Amino acid sequence: MSEWLFVPAAYLIGSISSAILICRLMGLPDPRDQGSGNPGATNVMRIGGKKAAAITLLGDLLKGLLPVYIAKILGVPVDILVATGLAAFIGHLYPIFFGFKGGKGVATSLGVLLGLSWWLGAAVIITWLAVYKLGKISSLAALCASALSPVYAWFIVGDVRVVEVAIVMTVLLLWRHKSNIQRLLAGVEGKSTAR
Questions:
Q1: Which domain holds residue 89?
Q2: Model pTM?
Q3: Is 177 in contact with 139 (CB distance < 8 Å)?
Q4: If you average pLDDT over residues 92-112, what whole number do you get?
Q5: DSSP, residue by residue, 39-85
Q6: Packing angle between helix 78-93 and helix 50-73, nearest 10 degrees?
Q7: Distance of alpha carbon 76 from its chain centroid, rounded?
Q8: 193 within domain boundaries
Q9: For 151, how many CA atoms within 13 A lie in the half-sphere containing its CB?
Q10: Which of the 8 DSSP states describes residue 195?
């Protein structure tokens, strides 16, 4: 029973907003009040530059990776492992510490996938890089990589529970990117706009 404590702990870790904390530490404006209003790495780049954005991106990735990786090396069952990853991801999207208004989840979902399987995470990263190189639109790259993650999970991991959590994260990520998708369909999405 105590192993299930990983799940609420992961949600609380996911609820720590890297973007907001980094901006406060670096004396930058609150990302929720500037640019797109999204507390994510791309918006932090707009208001604070590449260094602040890189730290934010790393923080968001680690929120997904560390809870899953720690649970994994401690040998928790797969059911709890995937629930831990999903909890961290949902914490990022709907953080209890910041009025349940979080980021879009790209880096945190990648962290979760890396924690579940390094090869799975690597496949998602390679897909993101390939799509971005072709179109220079970061949101499109993120959406394509996320949409393919359940397929990769099936062939690389082969556990339906990992596939299921990849599907849930993809659906939520697509929902959070609905404005980006609308702009992509209209042909007006700017380049390097993933958040």
A1: 2-186
A2: 0.93
A3: yes
A4: 95
A5: -SHHHHHHHH-HHHHHHHHHHHHHHHHHHHHHHHHTT--HHHHHHHH
A6: 160
A7: 22
A8: no
A9: 8
A10: -
Tokens of 60: 């968001």
Q: How many CB atoms lie within 10 A of CB 148?
A: 17
Q: What are 108's two structure tokens? A: 């945190």
Whether residue 195 is contained in a domain is answered as no
Taking 90 as the threshold, does the pLDDT of residue 90 lie above it? yes
Can you read off the two tokens belonging to residue 174?
């697509």
Side chain identity at residue 25, one-letter code: L
Q: What are the helix (H) ranges across the chain?
A: 6-14, 18-25, 41-48, 50-73, 78-93, 106-116, 118-135, 138-156, 160-176, 178-186
Total domains in the fold of the chain: 1
Residue 63 contacts residue 12 (beta carbons within 8 Å): no
Any domain includes 64:
yes
- Asked if residue 21 belongs to a domain, the reply is yes
| Confidence check: pLDDT of 194 > 80 | no
The pLDDT value recorded for residue 136 is 87
155 vs 34: CA distance, rounded Å: 41
**pLDDT category, 95, cuts 50, 70, 90?**
very high
